[in-house]
């Protein structure tokens, strides 16, 4: 890329866009003044970029077809072997298709990114490989990860292994499905509204959204930097704790990682929970479309924890129901600014994939390819940005403190909060020609209980706790104080070892 001086006409057009009256003579004066800057920009172009290293070789990739990809969960398969030994030796891993994996395509479920190949590995990738894991491919996700369902990815729908024709939960659809299928020991996820916990709930696996910043987000496509979280999906709680132990910690790039409080999460496995206080959040149940099997199944799970010696009490957090509008104002306008208007989020220190910015910079030319989920969200984000000057985004950012304080107040008297992860079980995947209203309902119906904690940054885990109508999994969500992931694992593992979750619920396997 070579920096070129602007023309008089270009300066005048820029002035028009900024509301500045620019005559030809004024434009020429501006050009004369900025000429010295040109050499600086050209120098920047000539210097080698500073991005994370690539430590482990990879020989290629392919798109699996037929029986090898029956559920549609793989976007590509590859083979990248890590260190010869380590905590994750022998573990097979799938990487959500939002993570930069050098030499392997990154599409984020989007047709407009087909053919894009990153030049570096996200630091989390290197950590997994350093610990001895083997990466065997990338998992499908929803288009720009902008859906909790399974109907928008450019590669087609991903089917729930426990309920064919139903969503495995999004946006990390392939990650949830591959873990449920047993094809991998762990899959990475990204969570902006519940995209780790929703597939964990609907697919019947374990998924954690850690405290914001605990896992570095460097080299991972997101939405708004203030709600982006990364974490693992696994079949068991013990594996989840193990993988988070490897993934967590500062990477030296991500400025969102100040003040981390790390722990050895695997030490929580096998601990008793007698005396632990758990608040059952009333507002997480009985919502207008809550399925009775879900509410009953989660309350049954609470009784299991009570039987293990935990103190279970009903509590009320009215602000919980205000989480969705606060999340919406931040996520929609934030994504509009960080992806559509500006190609990548600005004003944070970290690693910028400049080649990706170039691809996203031409998004307007192919905007009609976007699914309705992205179109509607970006139209609303653009509307509030243009006609309300960001008022709702800024006000929501302020109100997130009140929402956080409401949960903190409840957590001052309890070790954990408890509620359903998703208020319904996996829904059927809409047809490709489904009307806008059907697609939007499918894509956003599951975020009510999950998205508030993206705003407040509290760690939250989803574990399977039973089977409801049609044999579809039910997810139990536990929420802890910031940096208390070990408390989550302690309770989750106690529940897991106390019962066989598939023998619980209205459609239990007896």
Automatic annotation (TrEMBL):
One of its GO terms (molecular function) is catalytic activity. Pfam families: Amidase (PF01425). Gene3D superfamilies: Amidase signature (AS) domain. Residues 78-488 form the Amidase domain. It comes from the Bacteria. Transmembrane segments: none annotated. This is Amidase.
